[in-house]
Amino acid sequence: MKTLKTILVLAVLAVSGMAAAALDPLNYVVELGYASDPVPAHEADSLTVTPCNSCEPVTVRFSTATAYRLAGFESAAVTLTDFSQAVRQAGNKDALLFYVRYDANTMLVSDLVLSGAE
Hints:
Elements: H1 2-23, E1 27-33, E2 46-49, E3 58-61, E4 67-69, E5 77-78, H2 80-89, E6 97-103, E7 109-115
Parallel strand pairs: 4-7
Antiparallel strand pairs: 1-6, 2-3, 4-5, 6-7
């Protein structure tokens, strides 16, 4: 009887572990240059990105939950208006890099990060 309980407990743990793994979002980060025009015009805009050299392009969507950051993924979020203004005021636009982090399951952008602004 003890062996049956042990097997049952292990089976429940294994199934719950698989269910938890299925709920974890798969996040991708794509690096883009200024020429890609990654700054959305509004909060419900979309952007087509190519996750890797051999990957097909995908369209990701911005939302009101998207965080716009000026100094790395750990920096405080700013408004889309402030983010757009920082991009417009940047000196050497060719040196700008943008990092787009999105959930591969929902295709929603969680973060848009500006790097290289002077």
